[in-house]
Amino acid sequence: MRHRIKKHSFGRKQGPKKALLRGLVNSLVEHERIRTTLSKAKYMRSFVEKAVTQGKVDSVHTRRLLMSKYPNKDTVKKLVSDISVRFKDRPGGYTRIIKVGPRPGDMADMAYIEFVDYKLPEAGAEETVAGADKAEVKKQKAIAKAHADKKKNRRKMQNLSRKINRKK
Fold it and tell me: What is the largest CA-CA distance in the chain?
């Protein structure tokens, strides 16, 4: 008989499971959409919803409570000042889970978890930003090329050194 079955242990003990949850919540608040396994998304959903509901009351007490659960200042600040304000009139249901399909490696069910008002960035918007900073992009490419050349030369030297050492 399988007594005392833990529903959401994810093969981890309490501390690592709590760290996993904190990381997932921090990532979701920062990016507003993340891809994870379906079971992790379902488990995380209730914690995110409670955090957003708590964040609706902007007070020092609320911020301290959220800091105790999710010790990341940026996460708490965005929860209280941005996300909770957007959902002020909404009574609940701040996130949605979109099933993606199985992961190729282990066939685990994957899903996107995102806030309900999330909008995908348009492809045209990225091009205009890149077009405005052409000089910066060119400079970054030159730095990357110099770094790659330096790495290539180092590998040649190491290879030559190995050949010499093998002969001895």
Answer: 78
Contacts with 137 (C-beta within 8 Å, 6 or more apart), sequence order: 130
Alpha helices by DSSP H, listed for the chain, are 14-31, 38-55, 60-69, 73-78, 84-86, 123-132, 134-167
Q: Which residues of 121-136 are buried (b: 16+ CB within 10 A; e: fewer)?
A: eeeeeeeeeeeeeeee
At 121 the three-state DSSP class reads coil
Task: Indicate whether 80 and 142 sit together in one domain.
Answer: no
pLDDT digits (tens, 9 = 90+) for 138-153: 888 888 888 888 888 8
Q: Which domain holds residue 52?
A: 14-120
Is 68 a member of any domain?
yes
Residues listed for the chain: 168
How is 122-145 classified by DSSP, letter by letter? PHHHHHHHHHHTHHHHHHHHHHHH
d(CA 33, CA 83): 13
Interatomic CA distance for residues 115 and 34, integer angstroms: 10
**Each residue's pLDDT tens digit, 39-53:** 999 999 999 999 999
**6, part of any domain:** no
Question: Phi, psi (5° rounding) for residue 40?
Answer: -65, -40
